[in-house]
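Is this the right way to post structure tokens for a design question? Let me know if I should format differently. Anyway, here goes:
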């Protein structure tokens, strides 16, 4: 467990999904994350391929979520293939050593909960011998959030998120 200023990070449990769905719905409505309303579902938050997932708790209430995912299998999606290739070139590691930060959302009620969750995900990736990477809609406030925490943009990649086409910013976690 990881804790900062009363914020505790622990592995996500199945029972957390019911609490996380309203948080995800509010994030979609206020920040357009996820981009598609149809993604506000438990199976989107908890896909079978994820490497690990955690929640942030404050005063015993779940206030956020983050997961690590593998890069997509080669040939599954041209945008995912392009992103993976760029991350590999930028980091010098193979695709199976990358961990994509994903499903990252907070309810906004506890300052520092997002920073705490993100730091936990980066540390967990490193502990597993992986490099944390992510992609983000460049028009979102999240891009600035990551930059302020030392993430480096290494390129862009055309992504098809349902009916939305986005030239996503590709980012790499800061080095220790």
């Amino acid at each position: 467990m990881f804790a900062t200023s009363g914020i505790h990070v622990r592995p996500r449990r199945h029972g957390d999904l019911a609490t996380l769905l309203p948080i995800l719905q509010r994030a979609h409505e206020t920040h357009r994350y996820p981009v598609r309303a149809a993604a506000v579902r438990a199976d989107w938050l908890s896909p079978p391929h994820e490497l690990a997932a955690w929640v942030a708790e404050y005063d015993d209430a779940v206030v956020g979520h983050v997961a690590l995912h593998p890069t997509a299998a080669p040939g599954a999606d041209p945008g995912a293939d392009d992103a993976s290739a760029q991350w590999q070139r930028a980091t010098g590691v193979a695709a199976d050593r990358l961990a994509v930060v994903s499903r990252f959302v907070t309810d906004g009620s506890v300052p520092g909960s997002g920073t705490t969750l993100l730091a936990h995900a980066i540390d967990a990736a490193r502990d597993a011998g992986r490099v944390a990477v992510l992609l983000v809609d460049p028009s979102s406030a999240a891009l600035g959030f990551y930059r302020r925490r030392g993430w480096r943009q290494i390129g862009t990649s055309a992504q098809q998120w349902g009916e939305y086409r986005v030239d996503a910013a590709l980012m790499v976690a800061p080095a220790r």
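Format looks fine. Someone answered above. Worth noting: The two ends are 20 Å apart (CA to CA). Residues 82 and 157 are 6 Å apart (CA to CA).
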